[in-house]
Specification:
Layout: H1 2-26, H2 30-38, H3 53-59, H4 62-90, H5 94-113, H6 126-136, H7 138-155, H8 158-181, H9 188-208, H10 210-218
Helix pairs in contact: 1-4, 1-5, 2-4, 3-4, 4-5, 4-6, 5-6, 5-9, 6-7, 7-8, 8-9
Length: 229
């Protein structure tokens, strides 16, 4: 409780700034912007209707999909870097800085899924979530990417790989932080906070795949195909 009070007294305001920064950056949806400018359509009216990398790849083309992937990745990297600098020059506490990065990342993912600029109708957040993990804990990032790669290589189904990656994020965050980070001297506040945020991220990604889960259960989910342009 004392650790929480210290964090709230020192970091509440800049944590709010980090959350707002993350949400506004996450709300920039490159799949929608690209399809509107290149094919004069809204990606949400094409293919699966999802405003994300995979649907752009299937419905529009490889070039737009690559740009979408890079954009959805970078839009998490930039605000998290800004948050890191903000915390470093205000509180200069590694634990608080890391928590701030997680908060920024979480709201960046929420922005991608429920973008302020596009009627709260966004994508499923897989690429942006990967960027958040890359910027917050490379170990969890590697576990999640490995889970995605193994499942995708076996099934050729992006959604199934993404669901397993989300589960890997949840499990590996808890294991890494409870069995490694905590014994390296980090506080229990840190361990609990990042575990809760990782749980929320994993839940959001899986929840956004609810339609895919229904199709998977029926054996109707599509394997990856590419729109040629």
């Amino acid at each position: 409780m004392n650790e929480l009070s210290l964090y709230m007294s020192n970091c509440l305001f800049i944590s709010i700034i980090a959350a707002v920064l993350g949400y506004l950056s996450g709300s920039i949806n490159f799949s929608i912007l690209l399809t509107r400018t290149t094919v004069k359509q809204d990606i949400r009216t094409l293919g699966s209707g999802n405003a994300g990398f995979t649907n752009v790849l299937r419905s529009v083309g490889k070039a737009q999909a690559i740009i979408t992937f890079v954009g959805d990745f970078i839009k998490a990297v930039i605000p998290i870097l800004a948050t890191q600098l903000l915390f470093h020059y205000t509180v200069d506490n590694p634990e608080y800085t890391s928590i701030g990065k997680y908060i920024c990342g979480l709201f960046c993912i929420i922005g991608h899924m429920f973008p302020a600029y596009f009627g709260l109708k966004g994508g499923k957040g897989v690429v942006t979530s990967a960027a958040v993990l890359f910027m917050t804990d490379y170990r969890v990032f590697l576990f999640s990417v490995a889970a995605f790669a193994i499942v995708f290589l076996i099934s050729k189904i992006v959604s199934l790989g993404s669901i397993f990656a989300a589960l890997a994020c949840f499990i590996s965050t808890i294991c890494v932080n409870y069995y490694i980070t905590y014994y390296q001297g980090y506080s229990m506040l840190y361990v609990i906070t990042v575990s809760v945020i990782a749980t929320v991220i994993s839940f959001l990604v899986i929840y956004r795949h609810k339609s895919n889960i229904k199709r998977l259960m029926k054996g109707e989910e599509q394997r990856i195909t590419v729109k040629q342009n």
